[in-house]
Amino acid sequence: MDACSPVVRVDLERDLSLVKETMATGINATRRGAGDTAWDVWHTFCVDLHIDPYLQTLDDLIPLLQVFAHRYRNGTLAPSGAHIHSRTVEGALRANGQALATLGSPDPRLQPSGKLDIRLSRQLSAYKKADPPPTRVKPIPFPIIAQTAQLAYTAQTAHGLAIADMLLLGFFFLLRPGEYTHTTNPDAAPFRLQDSHLLINDRRLNNITCTEEDLLAVNYIALEFTTQKNGVRGELVGLGWSGHPIWCPVKALINRIRHLRSHNAPRTTPLYSYYDTEWQAINTSHLTTQLRTTVTVLGPAYSIQPTDISIRSLRSSSAMALLCAKVDTDMIRLLGRWRSDKMLRYLHVQSFPLLAPIAHQMLHHGHFTLMPTLQMG
Predict the structure, then answer these.
(1) 161/167 Cα distance (integer angstroms)
(2) pLDDT digits (tens, 9 = 90+) for 123-164
(3) In terms of domains, do 199 and 226 share one?
(4) pTM for this structure?
(5) Which of 130, 162, 188 is the last residue of a domain?
């Protein structure tokens, strides 16, 4: 770069800066923030030990990484100051290794084969075994969701109607909270008015200009993926009538479209928005509060308590409903946009309808005959 002319050097430095900004947006803001924090901790750790944070002066880097992991684990280095789980330690090590890799240095965690060094692997494995059992929210039986929506509809306020509609859309479409509620997550990608599609059989409507008569005749709806997690951009995921006059995704989406267009909302308006003297939004705490209020009354009949659930329960509730309906797990994974068996973490084997017939099925299908082993000679 020193041999470049001043003009060329300025252009090159500008483009390198733009490339760095582009790389930074290659991961979501939450991970980027966690990575920056982990690097700050690592830098301080190395400086305190009078060691180069870029590890240019050490032959065997693993012992240093192991001490860093140990102190991060026990809270000495962790930003929270408290003992943390193995996955957080692993994430900090990964973030720092990848930070060094982006500077052109080898990732110090990895062997030449690309596998994690066995010393780190065993250390992290030991941490994982010592971790307490994960706390998972429980899925919510649909009668509780329905009762919550019913109470919200009965209120006949813009706020209540929006709560009910978004509960139903979140449930039927297996949505993540940031896709149907306002959150503080910078990576949230809510579905907007322009992402909703209405059809009468195979005829697609313009959801802004179609007539009220057409709205009443809609029998199929779809949401278009743009930047939502694990979605294919431009792909439509659709649903038809549920068969119920109220608990139906088609009716819920039409309600939202009616409300938004009656107040001349821009096409980019999130579906969770509603107008009541001014534009407001349904957020995660609104839905969690309403659901927990219902669970306080109905929960004992279903063996759940208010503290067992939150708005994050809704996605697992959808998956459990599909599993109890004996929908193929591949289809559940497809609808929920799970790319792995991570879906199974959302499902609870405590579901009575799911497991009650298992013993009977095992008894009556346990009679089988093995093929005889062929004798040689």
Answers:
(1) 10
(2) 999 999 999 987 778 889 999 999 999 999 999 999 999 999
(3) yes
(4) 0.77
(5) 130
